[in-house]
Amino acid sequence: MNIMWFLPTQGDGHYLGTAIGGRETTFSYIKQIAIAVDELGYSGVLIPTGLFCEDPWTVAAAVAPLTNRLRFLVAVRPGIMQPTVAARMAATVDRISGGRLDVNVVSGGSPPELAADGVFATHDERYQLTGEFIDIWCRLLAGETVTMKGKHLEVRDARLLFPAVQRPHPRLFNGGSSAASHSFTAEKCDVYMTWGEPPRMAEEKIRDVQRRAAAYGRKLQVGMRLHVVVRETESKAWEAADDLIKYLDDETIARAQAAFAAQDSVGQQRMTSLHGGRRDQLVVSPNLWAGVGLVRGGAGTAIVGDPKTVAARLVEYQQIGVDTFILSGYPHLEEAYRFAELVFPLLPLKPPESQVAIGRDGGNSLREPVGEVIAHVAFPGR
């Protein structure tokens, strides 16, 4: 399996839903996390997108030269970005990073947030637009000169002057739970992403997407976005989970749940249904805790337990088809170390790949696969 981490460009802290113990989002702090997870042996980082986040493309370009092996999962936003501009951005960051870019296709799930960016399309209209966007984007990165007129987008004689390192283009990730999302992912993307639902629910979605992909003669990789709360003992882990939400009051929870209800994201609806906004319904599957979702949109569940238990739960997800996990914990710097030190030695991790880098003369050279060396030094006997 591949284990990725999360760069908290929207803020970080020790507790959820409060300014107590909050940590300012500075480039210095983001840089610390990126360098740490690169050295610890994580395979990549997800950089979030949205009104309340730093711009992910700028962040990726800034931290790429500071890391050696780390991959960067960065969002394109159909409807907010033009596909030609997004293709140039992707090619540039892929070159800067030496072929370490992955692309997260985000059609959006919050109408109020989309409206703030000038997007007023309905849920299914956004996926129609996204399909046209990705067709243009992929053809440009494959080296074509593109003229296309669709229902939503039109370009004439579009082309890229500077190509990306990866061919035909960086991998495309897409997450979603709706039929429109599954159909789009099955036809056009490389990796299907899901939030951390109980295994039975997640397996149903994975099977549906893979069935749709098979109709196109394709098989997708599968990723999962989860939080983790790991401690040396089970009891300490659950104490740490409870500690995360100890400053939450009913008013804060109700306000967050009302905001989530205004979204048209099927995935968010499924996340919310796990707990219904209630503190007494947070354990939704063995060691799967939905407390994060009381006030955080999107990925709202965490695996809670001692190292062996957390590793076992991840392997259970691997057995239903998940091969990539994008994890996070609060605060993200300390928890990146804690998870790597306690759980990495127990997991069947995929060996790091050599990376293609742009040499000083503008040509391509190969980076050494340093991650496995670091892993053996940090975790003797692995």
From TrEMBL:
Keywords: Flavoprotein, FMN, Monooxygenase, Oxidoreductase
Domain Luciferase-like: 1-324
Signal peptide annotation: none
Domain of life: Bacteria
UniProt EC number: 1.14.14.5
UniProt GO MF annotations: monooxygenase activity
Keyword Flavoprotein recorded: yes
InterPro entries: Alkanesulphonate_mOase_FMN-dep, Luciferase-like_dom, Luciferase-like_sf, SsuD_RutA_monooxygenase
Keyword RNA-binding (UniProt): no
Coiled-coil ranges (or none): none
Record-stated family: Belongs to the SsuD family.
Protein name per its UniProtKB record: alkanesulfonate monooxygenase
Gene that specifies this protein: ssuD
